[in-house]
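Deliverable D5.2: sample structural annotation.
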Amino acid sequence: MTVPTIADIHAAAERIAGAVEKTPCLKSRTLSEIVGAEVWLKFENLQFTAAYKERGALNKLLQLGEEERAKGVIAASAGNHAQAVAYHGKRLGIPVTIVMPTNTPLMKVAQTEEHGARVILQGQRFDDAYARARELEAEEGLVFVHPFDDPDIVAGTGTIALEMLEAVPDLDTLVVPIGGGGLISGIAIAVRALRPQVEIIGVEAELYPSMKNVVEGGEKAIGGDTLAEGIAVKEPGKLTRAIIRDHVDRIELVSEKDLEHAVALLVAIEKTVVEGAGAAGMALLLANPERFAGRKVGTVLCGGNIDTHLLANVLIRELVRCGRIARLKIGAQDQPGALASITACFHAAGVNIIETNHQRIFSKLPAKDTVIEVECEARDAQAIDALVERLEQKGFVVERAELD
């Protein structure tokens, strides 16, 4: 495959103009203060399908011949690429088939079908869906639209860099999520052509260091449940790995805790919903502020398609980590007045009780004692600490549940 050039990226920008959002690139004053750097956010989660994937997909579709358009296209995806191809395929009158794993959330299947695509569910893994899509490509004479390992896709994603450098010409560092590598490849080609001195850092989820392994010759284990499923790729692209070797300075990993923290802070501070993959760059900045101190850093919020229930869990877990919500196991004598004494401590500390549960059987305490589990919420961590101190002063044994 031919590596796209800056000319290809400029051509892609002209091709997709007006049909894809030119998303804002804004400085976050609060996140800048937290990191100790000037932090600029590219809000690709504000695309119509809530992800940057539209850029590459549209650039690919617009270059199809009449016969190819008439026969239609096919893609394998369980997420943002599926919706991007389906949406722009419908706009252009191109029949679209998407093959998804059978365990794809129904919401994503429904959203893809709403864009007019024929959805086929195949296998438990992405590899199964990919293999079936390739079979249908040959059987039905369809054009396969790869999610990342395609020069037209890479050129389309490179338009993000054009917009970022136009908005902030003096950026000195770019932090970009890596899955298959299409996003960072397009950005890196554009940046190396226009501002070669900019440091480009790729970010992968700690559980899926596939590109890091390939580029650096590592053997880190790959697999597991990650919040950043959008970049949970076991086999990165062949075209993209070559581009990354040539143009990306280094690849870093972020933990699940750091991904959750970044998603939660973006909601709390920027009032914007970003999926785990989209928050990977911000997660690296927050986890390693000393590395970016004093710099002018840009990162791409590349997608915002996160399940609402999962988002709620992430936000509540963040409240636990920062000490505003706690679960306490309080050992007490099982006698009248014990619960009243406990609740009096909560009242005095200004801590609200959310839920309680008595545990008399499954406990290591003597038979005359009980464990009262209390989930509670306070204005800050100090209030919870003060509560625990009050309870212990009253003679209660307190054990605090921890996330990490």
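Annotation notes: The chain has 17 helices and 14 strands. The longest strand covers residues 325-333.
The annotation will be released with the project's public dataset once the embargo ends.
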